[in-house]
Amino acid sequence: MKLLEGKVALITGASRGIGRGIAEVFAAHGANVAFTYLSSVEKGQALEAELAAYGITAKGYRSDASDYEQAHALADAVVKDFGRLDILVNNAGITRDGLLMRMNKDQWDAVIKTNLDSVFNLTHAVQRTMLRQRSGSIINMSSVVGIKGNAGQANYAASKAGIIGFTKSVALELGSRGIRCNAIAPGFIETEMTGALDAKVVEGWVESIPLKRAGTVEDIANACLYLGSDLSTYVTGQVLSVNGGMLT
Ligand code: NAP
Questions:
Q1: Per-residue 3-state assignment (H helix, E strand, C coil) for 122-134
Q2: CA 147–ligand 1 middle distance (angstroms)
């Protein structure tokens, strides 16, 4: 059964990793997919053709989610190209790790701008369309680190915790208009973002996870599928942890 037939989704940061996985699962479930990339131009362009093979309409846009003007221009272009917008996945994110003692202002600003400003920018940009439709599902990519904190990631944890407060507020503001807003808090997921980590550190983490494995991009994409589809029409303002039991 296809769960997103006829819906239009916009996914930020889909050239790689989790965003790419979400785009593929959404396309497989019949959604027409608009997605963004920034530096991975070739990968972004290749994805467009890959998604179209599912028999849906797919279009990639090179757009910086951290830029307010670009985010608004993107939302306008997507509505012009696809006619409507049912699901927004605010997935784009970066890390600039370091202990607070060594963290400089650039590291702080880059992470807050890309991870948190982007969520405001895109949500703000799509709300008019969703209000007009009186429906929509907004999914924001937080992190286990936004719930529990992490040494060496004060900037990242602050951005991901900020996303949770934002998500709950938007859910309260827009619920009466049929617009839902939820966050997903992934645990340790194997992507390029985590690929740079020391193998010994990773081994230790995996050992501490009750399900004894790292998560896959499909694990997160399937949670997005649930929140984007009509299976979750009574779910809003929630943080769905997808972490193998890490916080239990
Ligand atoms: P990734 O492999 O590093 O991919 C990041 C994606 O974000 C890329 O497609 C990148 O596009 C895009 N991006 C970065 N800055 C952007 C910007 N300003 N505008 C538009 N796109 C931008 O990361 P990932 O592991 O898939 O993570 C995806 C999301 O999940 C992030 O929000 C991350 O914080 C969150 N998360 C990940 C994990 C994990 O374990 N991996 C855990 C918890 C939460 P380009 O390459 O084209 O620039």
A1: HHHHHHHHHHHHC
A2: 18
Query: Can you tell me which atom of ligand 1 is nearest the CA of 156?
Result: 34
Nearest Cα to Cα of residue 135 among 182, 75, 84: 84
Nearest to residue 74, comparing CAs of 29, 111, 123, 133? 123
Of ligand 1's atoms, which has the minimum distance to the CA of residue 16?
9
For the question of residue 61 being annotated catalytic, the response is no
- pTM summary value: 0.98
Shortest-distance atom of ligand 1 to CA 40: 47
How many angstroms separate the alpha carbon of residue 12 from the centre of ligand 1?
A: 9
pLDDT per residue over 218-240, tens digit each? 999 999 999 999 999 999 999 99
Those residues with Cβ within 8 angstroms of residue 161's Cβ, 6 or more apart along the chain or in another chain: 142, 146, 147
Domain spans in the chain, listed from the N-terminal domain onward: 8-189+216-242
**Centroid of ligand 1 to alpha carbon of 17 (angstroms):** 7
pLDDT tens, 99-124? Answer: 999 999 999 999 999 999 999 999 99
Tokens representing 137?
Answer: 């599902």
Count CB atoms within 10 A of the CB of residue 132. 13
Architecture per CATH, domain 8-189+216-242, reads as: 3-Layer(aba) Sandwich (3.40)
Residues 170-182 as b or e (16 or more Cβ within 10 Å = b): bbeebeeeebbbb
